[in-house]
Amino acid sequence: MTKLALAFDLGGTELRGALVERDGAVAARVSAPTMAGAGSEAVIGQIIALAGTLLAEHPQAKVAGIGMCAPGPLDPKAGIVIGPPTLAGWHDVPLIDILSRQFGLPVRLENDANAAALGEWRFGAGRGSGSLVFVTVSTGIGGGVVADGHIYHGRRGLAAEIGHMTITGEGDRCFCGAVGCFEAVASGTALGRRATRLTAPGDGSLLRRLSGDGDVSARHVVEAARAGDVNALELVDAEAKWLGIGFTNLLHLYSPELIVMGGGLANGFDLLAPGIRATIEQRAMPAYRDVPIVPAELGDRAGLIGAASLILWEGEPGAPLAIAQDEDSGPSKRADAREANHG
Amino acid sequence: MTKLALAFDLGGTELRGALVERDGAVAARVSAPTMAGAGSEAVIGQIIALAGTLLAEHPQAKVAGIGMCAPGPLDPKAGIVIGPPTLAGWHDVPLIDILSRQFGLPVRLENDANAAALGEWRFGAGRGSGSLVFVTVSTGIGGGVVADGHIYHGRRGLAAEIGHMTITGEGDRCFCGAVGCFEAVASGTALGRRATRLTAPGDGSLLRRLSGDGDVSARHVVEAARAGDVNALELVDAEAKWLGIGFTNLLHLYSPELIVMGGGLANGFDLLAPGIRATIEQRAMPAYRDVPIVPAELGDRAGLIGAASLILWEGEPGAPLAIAQDEDSGPSKRADAREANHG
After folding, report:
1. How confident is the model at residue A322 (pLDDT cuts 50, 70, 90)?
2. Co-location of B172 and B208 in the same domain
3. What is the pLDDT of residues B292-305, one digit of tens each?
4. Is A173 on the interface with B (CB under 8 A)?
5. Per-residue buried b or exposed e for A173-199, using 16+ beta carbons within 10 Å of the residue's own CB
6. So what's the ipTM on this one?
7. B76 belongs to a structural domain
8. What is the count of structural domains for chain B?
9. A8, A123, B15, B180: which could form a disulfide with B34 (CB 3.0–4.6 Å)?
């Protein structure tokens, strides 16, 4: 059996683990609700427990290392989770040190949007391209940029914080404190909020019927738009315009070969695409207008697969590491893997 | 004598040439008003004539190659000037081919903002940094990004078109057709326009006295602000806010180690800096707030020096080229230089 990577995608809601093969195939998956309020030790305990489950179920697996993604801000080179807003009690947690000591394996860390960008680039919608911008549109908006064969990190790995790019002077204040962030006007949350304001409980609208007269979510808007609901179609149009403005900026700033849209709202990609395209046609300078905008292909596996690829494909970020596809087994498996980097 | 590069900075108004040494020193300079309306052949004739002047004045110069910058859009790898709006009759001009055939020397081409970014990074305000974003604020706004030791090019060399990043929904329509471009609200032109609207010919304001009752320019605003004029100080505050919003986006998107501000408006950098800083403090996420924003150091030589460095320091963009600092002369000078790349 070829070598596998243990991969973890640490989200504010769910902690996912997987054994991933070198071709991006997911050999096994586990998950658990993240104990997001319990601090870093508890969550690291969950990671160790899930790893134990995966390894117990696949005792024959030769694990080359652990690829891990977590919410930003984090420093991928130093291997430190700086302080994600969705995880209480995480402050400068040296996750690579902790996990590599626990498992005696190489560990790589990347922020979740960057890992998903890598996953989509290597195994998903961006296969074969030289560069891409991955945009995840969900509760918030995040992004990752692949250029010249690697993640564009910037200082401290903090590049591509695209959700907090100012694109307008209007709209609700963003949780970050600014007005006009891409995320504040174009996330799934923003779309749901507009739909909720447009309707009222008991008004008989399709949006409220779908939401059981509760707050309307982006998912309800997409569902209602598919049914031809006029309100929902207008909301989708406005959403596509905001996405188109943000995407146009990404084209002008990064000039990627393609933009890949993922996240929950990618479920409505077919409905949004015409409006996104029209806005780009209208606003982008001519040389950027023909860049494809495509939906993500890996869904919620993108982060796991991208994180695994940090182990199986190359050592980025951080020190040299490139685990060879090694058919041998032996007592010095890890030493071999490390030597392979310097070969 | 060590080798020099011939460098040209082709602007819509002025064509500048220089002989540049390996340490960035400018050994000789020439310039001429660009025959911008006369088409590419006429302007290429001007380049050849200026080269002749420089070489005639410095017959002992050992020229290793020609580094050239020109307005975008251009394709640095293919060596093609695609069609700058400020130069009539330039459509897909293969400038590298033309000049290398003319001179029998290696030629490198880069867009002007990228060349200036390289110049400031190697010899100016960004010396010693690992990454920077260079922003030129003048008639328009342009930019160049250096990361991991080279220009961030993107597809067709079109990355960092930061002037056409949408940052608001208000203001005058940009020449590109969109509303809310960084350039449309924050360029020197935009500042001058606001000052012109705020005042009227004959109103006795300092701004109009400085402009001789004509249109007020950004330069007049800076001059009046230095004299303590209240109108001008308010205009500077508003300008700094717009620059701060744009710079915050650049921090979030590229996460550079520093931002270098050049262009005509950098003459007012000391007046603008407090307002830029305050806006960044207010809008940037905490991890980005301590990134230095500094004025450019090379002035209008940045493009020339950066273009020269393409020849003298490395082959970027395009094919391998690294002209050795070669004290020998001999008949096969260029062959030697090419071989040095593969050594």
Report:
1. very low
2. yes
3. 999 999 999 999 99
4. no
5. ebebebbbbbbbbbbbbbbbbbbbebb
6. 0.89
7. yes
8. 2
9. B15
